């Protein structure tokens, strides 16, 4: 089967002029080069067009496309390629060499970095707990099989009965409305550590549930630690507490302050915001290190300062 120049242009997603340029460069040769007018124009073998199509098709993603997939800059992708952290190859198209990355390599790198980030989080605070699901809210009181219980996990759904037994309800639906409190933008956290209670009516569960409802799920993180404690990380909001709840939180605080104010108790971080001017080169290295370790910028800077001050104490 023979193809016309219009059909070749459509097949290769190019203009007729571009196809003629390929002919001039010897990439494509018509079968009727000597007498095209007699046949109503140039004609090309389908197998020749298919072979050209394959040679012009990129076998991977460009550096720019790779950067878009990973949400990085092209320059940093090239740095990762240079270090061997991302495997690449070259493909010649015409007179140009293109550096490409296979999609599966991009997915491998992304998965590896996600796993590193999860490992860092697990190593630092423990297992991050889900606070709200379609079925329930963490630490809410519930009736499971006709018995009062406390929801203690959402992934999977688990509840603690009054005997201390942990059960997995086959079916449960909370009546609580989702608490869409806005994100508190003031920087800094107040951290608590609570021993994990063994009874569903323990005051700790009441206090934690109240903190989540008053601050909103966007402003509090709860981690289940290996040795049976809850690590709680709160943004700087206002809590309305009973006196015994205030004393419980005050005993459990490990960083930050809980200050009595009009209308409740203010969570206040120990952190102080400081502006620092650094060079662009330092900022690039800073971002690269943060990305490599799967940490936030502030965490990297805090680690560096702590290490420096510790060595000069």
TrEMBL record:
SUPFAM superfamilies registered for this protein in UniProt: Putative DNA-binding domain
InterPro entries named in the record: DNA-bd_dom_put_sf
Superkingdom assignment: Bacteria
Protein name: Helix-turn-helix domain-containing protein
């Amino acid at each position: 089967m023979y193809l016309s120049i219009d059909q070749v242009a459509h097949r290769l997603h190019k203009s007729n002029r571009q196809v003629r340029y390929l002919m001039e460069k010897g990439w494509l040769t018509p079968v009727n080069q000597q007498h095209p007018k007699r046949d109503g124009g140039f004609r090309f073998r389908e197998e020749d067009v298919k072979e050209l199509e394959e040679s012009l098709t990129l076998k991977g993603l460009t550096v720019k496309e790779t950067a878009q997939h990973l949400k990085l800059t092209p320059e940093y992708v090239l740095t990762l390629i240079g270090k061997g952290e991302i495997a690449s190859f070259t493909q010649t198209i015409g007179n140009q060499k293109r550096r490409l990355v296979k999609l599966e390599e991009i997915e491998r790198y992304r998965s590896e970095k996600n796993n590193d980030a999860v490992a860092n989080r697990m190593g630092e605070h423990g297992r991050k707990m889900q606070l709200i699901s379609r079925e329930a809210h963490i630490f809410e009181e519930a009736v499971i099989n006709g018995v009062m219980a406390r929801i203690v996990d959402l992934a999977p759904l688990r509840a603690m009965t009054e005997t201390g037994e942990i059960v997995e309800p086959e079916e449960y639906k909370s009546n609580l409305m989702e608490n869409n409190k806005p994100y508190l933008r003031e920087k800094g956290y107040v951290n608590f550590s609570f021993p994990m209670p063994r009874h569903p009516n323990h005051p700790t569960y009441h206090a934690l549930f109240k903190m989540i409802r008053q601050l909103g799920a966007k402003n509090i993180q709860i981690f289940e630690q290996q040795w049976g404690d809850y690590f709680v990380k709160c943004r700087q909001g206002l809590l309305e507490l009973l006196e015994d709840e205030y004393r419980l939180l005050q005993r459990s605080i490990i960083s930050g302050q809980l200050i009595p104010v009009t209308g409740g108790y203010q969570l206040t971080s120990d952190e102080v915001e400081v502006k620092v001017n650094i060079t662009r080169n330092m900022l690039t290295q800073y971002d690269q290190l943060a990305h490599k370790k799967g940490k936030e910028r502030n965490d990297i800077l805090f680690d560096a300062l702590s290490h420096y001050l510790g060595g000069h104490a």
